[in-house]
Every structure is written in C-alpha cells, then in structure tokens.
Amino acid sequence: MKPDTKFDKPGKSPFMDMDLIPKYADEEGEKNDHGIRIDPTQVQNLGLKTEKVIKGQLNYSQTIPANVSFNEYQFVIVQARSDGFVEKVYPLTIGDKVKKGTPLIDITIPEWVEAQSEYLLLSSTNGSATQLKGVLERLRLAGMPENDIQRLRSSRSIQTRFTITAPIDGVITAFDLRTGMNISKDKVVAQIQGMDPVWISAAVPESIAYLLKNTSQFEISVPAYPDKTFNVEKWTLLPGVDQTTRTLQVRLQVSNKDEQLKPGMNAYLKVNTRSQDMLLIPSQAVIDTGSEQRVITVDKDGRFVPKIIKVLHESQQQAGIGAGLSEGDSVVVSGLFLIDSEANITGALERMRHAENVASAHSGH
C-alpha cells in the first residue's frame, strides 16, 4: 500500500494488520527487468486466468433511440397561381389523408376565362399555330390545370369554374380556405406531405461510422408494433457531427405502404456490423488508467509482464487492439489488478517504459 516506504527488518505493517513482505536483492537483477514472478501456489489461490490474443472481427451491436418523420422529398405546396374566388371548399382539414386527384377547392379565375376567350377567338379567325400555342402556355404558367387546358382544346367552350386537386397521395398539413373567400396568386391552397416512404433518424457514435456499409446492417422496431418488421429501402449518413455528443445523424428511408408508421413516433434502430480483421482480447483484460491502457501478459518463462496497448474499439465484452500485442500472446483476464499493483511496486512497468523510450531514441538516429 506504501511502495515508497521500506523497512530493514520483518514484522507487522504500521499501516494495517498484515505481515511485511520481504524483497531480496536478487529480485532486482537483469533477469526480472521485464516482468515479475509470482509463486505458482499463489497464482492458483488467486484464481488467475489467461486467454490468448486472437485475430478476428469485432462484432458491433447496439440499439439506438430513433424517431419517425415525414419524407421531405414528398412535400408539395398547392397554389392557384392567379387571383380569383373560392366557389367551394371540399370537406377536408389538416390531418386528413388524400389520394392523388382528390378535389380540394373549386375556384373562378377571371384571368383564365379571359385567356380562354382569346384562344377560341384565334381558333375561329385562323390564328397561327404559334399564337395558339402561346395562349395555351400562358394558361399553364398562370396555373390552369392541364386537364382543363385539354378540355378547352377538345370542347371549344369556355370554362368558368375549376377544381384544384391533390397532386400526390399524402396527408394535409395546411388548409385554411373557406367558401366565398378571395384568393390571391401567392395564397397557399394546401400543403400535402407524402406518407410512403417515411424517414427514420437516429444519432450513431462517430467511432462506428466507417463500419456502416449497407441496409442489411439496420433493423427497425417500433414500440407500437413490437411484432412487425420494417423494410429499410436506403440510408444516408448526414454531414456534420454533434460536437457535444460526438454522434452523426443516420437517416433511413423505410417503406410505409400501410401507413402504420406515423411521423413523431418513437422507434429503435439496431445496428449490427463487423469490423475488419484485428487483434481481439477480452475487455476485462484491459487496465485503463485514464492516461494509458495496458494489459498483463505472460511470457514463455512464466513471468507476468505489463504492456502498454492501444484499444481501437470495444463491443460485446471484446476489445480490438491496434498496437502493443501480437497474435498468440497470453493476457491475464482475472486477478490482473493484483499483478498490476505488484508490477508497479517492483518497478517492472517503469523499467518497461524506460526500455521503450531508449528503443525509440535509437530508432530515431
């Protein structure tokens, strides 16, 4: 407990009721410069266990909170694009689901009526094809629906009332017109948001970003439907890192044909992936001091040798090692703190650091 305090004779420790342990001069010889020896009986009593360093892939599996949101690629704003009057509002409101072609409002647009009259007049007075085409293009730019333009060409009659319809399947997220209102060309008739597919977003640790390769690595679950699985169609890793949490946003596009997934729902993203081949040891073999990471190895002569290592990743009680060990090395996985303390007391770890520093200095010349 007090490695810097030494006594010249045996007896009881003044710090606790324990016998002092003798240390002999020959224990500090060259033979022990890179490790310590422990009596085999004591090793057995301590239940020390070792495992071999192996080479393999680190399996990474983690469940991360996620949330469901609208697919922003399926968002439309419906406008009349010309001044007019609202003749009828169909019984719809925010939150209603609509199909493509569902009527939203009936309107009268004087500008459209005037352009139709010009088109029919040119048609009856042998106007040129360019003139007729120009009038039709003006109607399109003014917002007149294509179906009504084609009806004008075929029926040769003026239409005064037009129906604005939903351009996509989805949910109405804005709709506040009333029958009898004036409507300006920049007034929003409705906002419609598609529901299939939806997006599911989650924050993943930046340290595993390089492991994400394809959609098969992702599993989606939703508390509302615990027995249902959802098909991930595509995914993307958004640019930018949250500097507080050190996470990246991953966005998954998920099929939602039955529209069970509702924007705002909680979801869970399970990430299953594997690293490239690397050296693996049990996580409990790693001693992390805050300033360095190390393990206790057993050499061919049975000495316990502390080694400084570099841990790349940890998952499922395994640690991936980037430096400090070789395949086949034996590392202590239980009782290692007792050995580590002994290594520090006898100075084995400090001698090892000194040897590494000397080697580094020579390699630099």
UniProtKB/TrEMBL annotation:
Residues 1-23 form the Heavy metal binding domain. The keyword Calcium does not apply. Residues 197-274 form the CusB-like beta-barrel domain. GO terms for cellular component: membrane; outer membrane-bounded periplasmic space. Residues 111-160 form the CusB-like three alpha-helical bundle domain. InterPro entries: 3HB_CusB (IPR058791), Beta-barrel_RND_2 (IPR058792), BSH_CusB (IPR058790), HMBD (IPR045800), MdtA-like_C (IPR058627), MFP_Cation_Efflux (IPR051909), RND_pump_MFP (IPR006143). Gene3D superfamilies: 2.40.30.170, 2.40.420.20, 6.10.140.730. Keywords: Ion transport, Signal, Transport. One of its GO terms (molecular function) is transmembrane transporter activity. GO terms for biological process: copper ion export; plasma membrane copper ion transport. Residues 278-336 form the Multidrug resistance protein MdtA-like C-terminal permuted SH3 domain. It comes from the Bacteria. Residues 76-193 form the CusB-like barrel-sandwich hybrid domain. Belongs to the membrane fusion protein (MFP) (TC 8.A.1) family. NCBIfam families: PRK09783.1, RND_mfp. This is Cobalt/zinc/cadmium efflux RND transporter membrane fusion protein. It comes from Trabulsiella guamensis ATCC 49490. The gene is cusB.
